[in-house]
Amino acid sequence: MIARKEDLVKIQDTLEMKIPFHDTDVAGWVYHSNYLKYGDEGFIHFFEKKLCISTLQEVIDSSIVFPVRTLTIEYKSPAKFGEVVLITTQITSIGTTSFNLTQEIRKKENDALLATIESTRVIFNVNTKHPQNALEFFRACTVKP
After folding, report:
1. CATH value of 5-141 in 3.10.129.10, 2.60.40.10, 3.40.50.150, 3.30.1360.120
2. What is the DSSP letter of 2?
3. pLDDT (tens digit, 0 to 9) for every residue of the chain, 145 residues total?
4. Measured between alpha carbons, how far is 110 from 97 in angstroms, rounded to an integer?
5. Is 114 helix (H, G, I), strand (E, B) or coil?
6. How far apart are CA 20 and CA 34, in angstroms?
7. Which helix (H) or strand (E) holds 65?
């Protein structure tokens, strides 16, 4: 169980994935918007592997969703079809009803930084149509060891 915000910002996770052909252009380079898709995959993996006992789908089924309030992406270097990338996700801060994530996408082969993504996600209850208290949500979530 998480007692303090400081405990949450120490948690990070890395997802490994191989770049599929359908994410690339005719030259084999990853199309820019796909990096955001990789960030979402990293968030789902982080949530299910490190953050909550529940799967993300179970949380969504309980009427909690995580809409993006703000998002910034900085492209550093392109990835190509067939390369293996590592998507590292970490909570950097927790607000009253939201949390901030930082993600790095790197080539596994040489650790080259491909992109950084910073986002703010709100913890929102679709039934009440109101945001939820972030720390209370994470405390109830039962963080994995």
Report:
1. 3.10.129.10
2. -
3. 555 777 777 789 999 999 999 999 999 999 999 999 999 999 999 988 887 767 778 888 888 899 999 999 999 999 999 999 999 999 999 999 999 999 999 999 999 999 999 999 999 999 999 999 998 888 877 656 5
4. 38
5. strand
6. 11
7. strand 64-65
Instruction: Using the structure block, give the residue that is written with the tokens 């009253």.
Output: 96
User: CA 128, CA 122: separation in Å to the nearest integer?
Assistant: 14
pTM over 0.85: yes
Gap between the Cα atoms of 24 and 38, Å rounded: 13
8 contacts 2 by C-beta, under 8 angstroms: yes
How deeply is 72 buried, as exposed, middle or buried, from its count of CB atoms within 10 A (0-12, 13-18, 19+)? exposed
